[in-house]
Write a structure and sequence with these properties.
globular, two-stranded antiparallel ribbon, disordered C terminus, 35% helix, single chain, 3 helices, alpha+beta, 148 residues
């Protein structure tokens, strides 16, 4: 009997731990920051937001230039307590960013809404359709998407 109660408690603890796990990252937003200055402004905005929210900010951005022309690689993360904002341009136009969120559902949704509102003050922000993924914007960097 005692062994059965212990096994049930272990199974219940495992189930509740599994339910508390954050959902995997999926990009939710696309934004074209237009140029190097826009990329820096984006990173500064996210860094400032992270500071006010008590999130750790990590900027792994760099220029690629092993051979040929340099290409900006933008990779930034703001995270704390299992919640994370991830933004990058991998596989996209130079200054087109996909922004995603991960963590417990309520925290992830709050981050998404707050970051989207911040970005919309300066840029045109598009929601990425679920299951579709971001699509390269050939106009990004040509000032076609700049929000007045």
């Amino acid at each position: 009997m005692k062994r059965g109660v212990i096994m049930a408690a272990v199974a219940l603890a495992g189930l509740s731990a599994a339910c508390a796990q954050p959902e995997p990252y999926a990009p939710e937003l696309e934004v074209c920051v237009q140029d190097a200055a826009g990329a820096e402004a984006f990173k500064d905005l996210l860094k400032s937001y992270a500071r006010t929210q008590g999130l750790n900010f990590i900027d792994s951005s760099r220029e690629t230039a092993a051979t040929g022309p340099s290409r900006p690689v933008i990779e930034v993360v703001a995270e704390n307590d299992g919640a994370r904002v991830v933004a990058g341009n991998s596989g996209l136009a130079f200054y087109q960013l996909a922004v995603g969120f991960t963590g417990p559902k309520a925290r992830r949704e709050a981050l998404s809404g707050e970051v989207k509102a911040l970005l919309e003050k300066r840029w045109k922000v598009e929601r990425i359709q679920a299951g579709r993924g971001p699509v390269i914007d050939p106009e990004c960097g040509r000032y076609a998407n700049w929000k007045d």
